[in-house]
Amino acid sequence: MLVKINSIAVLGVDVVRVTVEVNIASRGFPSFDIVGLPNKSIAESKERIKTAIQNSGIEFPSSKKITVNLAPAGMPKEGTFYDLAIATGIVCASKGIKPPEDSMFFGELSLDGSLRHTKGAFLAALYLEDIGLRSIFLPLNSANEAAVFTGINVYGLSTMGELVSHITGKMQLAPYKNAAIDTRSKHVSTQDSEVVGQEYAKRALEIAAAGGHNVLLIGSPGVGKTMLARMFSGMLAPLTQQESHEVTKIYSVTGKIPPGGSLITARPFRAPHHTVSYAGFIGGGNPIRPGEISLAHRGVLFMDEFTEFHKDIIEALRQPMEEGKVTITRSSMSVELPCRFLLLAACNPCPCGYLWHHKNKCKCSVPDVERYRKKLSGPILDRIDIVCRMRDFELKSPDQNVLSSHDSHGNNSEIKMVIDRIYAAHKIQEKRFDGVGTVLNSEMTNMQVGLHANLSVEAKVLLNRAVESYGLSARSYFKIVKVARTIADLGGAGDIEPPHIAEALQYKTSTL
Amino acid sequence: MFDTVKYKTRKMEPGDSFPESLYPEILRGINSFPKVLFYKGDIVTGLFDNCVAVVGSRNMTMYGRTVTRNLVSALCAGGITVVSGFMYGIDATAHASCVEFGGKTVAVMPCGIEMIHPPRQKDLYMDILQNGGLVLSEYDEEFPPCVWTYPRRNRIVAGLCKAVLVVEAGEDSGSLITAGFARKYGRRVMAVPGPVTSLVSAGTLKLIKEGADMVCSAEDLMRLLGHGKGQVIGEHFVETIENNLNKLSTKIISVLGKEPLDISMLSKILEIDIPLLSVEMTNLSLAGVICEREGMYYVS
């Protein structure tokens, strides 16, 4: 008998419909073959499926010729989630039952017949209706991911046996109800806010978080760059529902959602080490998987020791940062992955790191420093709106109020105030860009800057004066207006006034 | 190829006699004078009559830069030729200030006359030549700079001048070699003091301890050179602005006047929030009262 089961194939973060055709023939040499360009993990599924069916107390048709075809057969397929579809097909075909209509079967089998948490469940549920299906059967541990969507039937299974009972009508499964989505956003812990001093950098990060501006922190080792970055992740507004779906999609595909997990609501914070490979960073591999830049989608990509990253990797950032997506093309396929992230880069002022240090002697010659800085300059600097130089401070006497100005309690409430300001600025931007497609000030096109920036006459005069005396380029001009717009939003001001421009000029990137 | 070709290379030798010898008389006085000198640019009458070398560290600080500009402006006003070694840092600042203030300057290269070293100072090189300055070397063609050509160059710098002024120098720096030659040739050695904590003032302080003349102002410098009081160009406009400053600005300037600071420290000391302080710092920078370099603020 021939049975057809619905399934999907994952391409990047998109899916295409796949039909799993199972034929059990009484004639022919007993065999079990899977065709349709399965990869190793699918080919190996034969053993899992056979054992799981047997261990579920169901007879496996070993004496028959079993042929499984994954159609369309010309597209390479990967993933352990075909286990359930193939197993269901075999059971239905051997028992002569018609499988449920409009349903997808998705999940990896364990040898004992139970179902394991499988990556990609969110994606399968998201596109279920698009490919014309209404129900999905998947592992119980993954059901919470899929049950985010209303209008589809989600059936969580813990064993293969449950599914067979359901199909044969012995026992009716109840649709899975979504457990309350964890909407707690990450809050800054006291420990994270213990960065001493560096008020200038903190303000820079506040502006960056509010307007989504890319930041470069430059400072000697130990001034608190990494700690500030950690604090930064807690300063960001939670994801909107739309954004949350986009992020969850990527995390589901890469298997980064824990069993029982659901929507991701906190903004991602990715901090790849500088030895990261090209494919690991941009995305790639076979099949194509999202890289760090996509995992940082709608969140923060923190590149510590920015200058230590391979030149190719830094250069490769250009197009994704501009477009918010990256297209990865291989001979067999081309995949588009989203990657709209905020770049938070940190580096030393010179190769040895101690150029600005009050005590440690810098061992670098002037050309050394220039060569080092050259790595930062150029196209990538064009995409950074805020440069912040962090000096270490000298503790001159115990009563100097560098350490004591904020006790940890006071500091915490200060952080809360900052976060409130950031959220308020987000609200203002939401209103401004309603229906425009832009979300944050940093994403404004030059034309939008003209439309939405609202520069006062005095601000324009000041900006023109700055352009002249600092010799700023047109690009710098727009960057400063964008940053000034965010500063004005943080202060709740309608128009950009001279003080906003003056403050924005403090973070200009042109003098690196 | 370099644009230097545009400027014809000529040479002078100590034995020249027709129609008159261009070879600087003062240089002939040292025991290891170069047997030939290549040069680009024009030797105006009296160029070598009154030369002072302004040399110093490659790792110039903002302090070194300010002092160099200030003192070079006085030298230019006094009609004194500024000689230096064209290295980046104090040397380059001395040349550049001299060009800016319309003075005469001589750059002595550590490499062949057809080369610009360091290459990225090409603009300065052209500026010197276009403004009637002179580029000198005892090596021809594109002889590369070597470890040993630098001290050889320094002997010419010292030999050309009646006095050597060291603005900033590290403990084992080339500037001290120049000062050593100057002393050997009987030239006056002058040094600018700096903070005892500064690495690039260690050398100048050592010179002062060893008996070099201390130069704390343009007045000191010109008095030591026998030029009376001397005058400084371009110091006036700051004062007029200062009269119009508000209270906060005055506070900022008085704090920065004591020591350069970054904005975070300044905010701690003045107890003013960063946003407000940032606005003030930008306004003061645009007014030219303070300047920022690599995150540190200095009074101009």
From TrEMBL, chain A:
Q: Which UniProt keywords apply?
A: ATP-binding, Nucleotide-binding
Asked if the keyword Nucleotide-binding belongs to this entry, the reply reads: yes
GO molecular function per UniProt: ATP binding; DNA binding
Cross-referenced SMART domains: AAA (SM00382)
Q: What Pfam families is this protein classified in?
A: ChlI, Mg_chelatase, Mg_chelatase_C
Query: Which residues does the UniProt record annotate as the domain MCM C-terminal AAA(+) ATPase?
Result: 288-402
Indicate yes or no for the key word ATP-binding: yes
Family matches, as NCBIfam families:
YifB family Mg chelatase-like AAA ATPase
- Similarity section: Belongs to the Mg-chelatase subunits D/I family. ComM subfamily.
Full protein name: Mg chelatase-like protein
Identify the species of origin.
candidate division WWE3 bacterium GW2011_GWA1_41_8
TrEMBL record, chain B:
State what protein this is by name.
Smf/DprA SLOG domain-containing protein
Keyword flag Disulfide bond: no
Which keywords annotate this record? Membrane, Transmembrane, Transmembrane helix
Domain Smf/DprA SLOG intervals: 20-224
Pfam families assigned to the protein according to its UniProt record, in alphabetical order: DNA_processg_A
Query: In terms of domain of life, where is this protein from?
Result: Bacteria
User: PANTHER family from the entry?
Assistant: PROTEIN SMF
Q: Which GO terms describe its biological process?
A: DNA-mediated transformation
